[in-house]
Amino acid sequence: MADIIPFRKPNKEQKSQGKTLCAHDFHKWLVVTDSDFDSKKGRLVTRYRCARCKREKNKAL
Ligand SMILES: [Zn+2]
């Protein structure tokens, strides 16, 4: 029997590195496409979301 099934371990180093970056406030900001209209300020607001920790921030144009 030489049926050795190779199995891949998930790359834990990459995941922990991402969390470390977020913990140090180095987020991977992605623009949320369905941008909100800020009714209070009366202008379009671009929303950003971190790809790793899902934190969001707004940036008025
Ligand atoms: Zn983050």
Main features:
binds zinc ion, 1 helix, three-stranded antiparallel beta sheet, 61 residues, alpha+beta, elongated
Rg, Cα atoms, Å: 19 Å
Strand content: 35-45%
Count the DSSP helices. Answer: 1
Give the distance, in angstroms, between the N- and C-terminal Cα atoms. 65 Å
Describe the biggest sheet?
3 strands, antiparallel
- Would you list the SSEs in sequence order as H and E? HEEE
Number of β-strand runs: 3
Helix fraction bin: 10-25%
- Average pLDDT taken over every residue: 79
Ranges where pLDDT stays below 50 over 5 or more residues in a row are none
The unique ligands bound to this protein are: zinc ion
Helix/sheet category:
alpha+beta
What does this structure look like?
By secondary structure, this protein is an alpha+beta fold. The protein has a domain at 28-61. 20% of the residues lie in helices and 38% in strands. The chain has one helix and three strands; from the N terminus they run αβββ. A three-stranded antiparallel β-sheet has the order 1-2-3, with no helix packed on it. The chain is elongated. The relative contact order is 0.20. The mean pLDDT is 79. The structure holds zinc ion. Residues 22, 27, 50, 52-53, 55 line the site of zinc ion (ZN).
